[in-house]
Write a structure and sequence with these properties.
With about 200 residues, the chain is mainly alpha-helical. It has two domains: about 130 residues, no CATH class; about 60 residues, no CATH class. The chain is about 85% helix and about 0% strand. It is built from eight helices and no strands. It is globular, with a radius of gyration of 21 Å.
Length: about 200
Amino acid sequence: MPVLLDLFISFAGIGLFTFGGGYAMLSLIENICVEKKHWITHEEMMDITVIAESTPGPVAINCATYIGYKKGKLAGAVLATLGVTLPSFIIIFIISVYLERFMEIAWVAHAFTGIKLAVGILIVDAAVKMISKMKKRPMQMGILAVSFVVMILISILKLPVSSILIMLAAAIFSVAAFLLKKDREGGERRNGGPA
């Protein structure tokens, strides 16, 4: 199958069969693009996720755009992005036309209860996969633990703190630690100590 068509069909399948938005899609994107198609590596998937989360727009669409560009340049980026968004657009359009009648159907309401639980599991699955593949360095594990505790406290105490602030704080801390380490290594080299 030509790569452009494969990109569109693969991401259309992800968009059609994943409920819960970008984070729930990450697990399926990794399964298809890393494990089945070998379009990217696990390390690239982690890097893409961090970049996609840090840039404007939904994380799954940003991931699709990057992977599409890597495999098929501009046309690949466009087709992968269209593939991941088109099914949702069509389904939401149809639901919006019949929304009131749609939600009155008892089995639909019960189905959405089950879907909410499945979405939570998909998000946890994506997080567990990323953490298990992450290099276990003390600073990274420390940032992970502190961020987790802070997010739990924010949720329990219902504080109006954006997760963006936590990501920015983690990024600033990481950059500061990197610069301090570089400065210390530079000082040791100048003083004739170990590099």
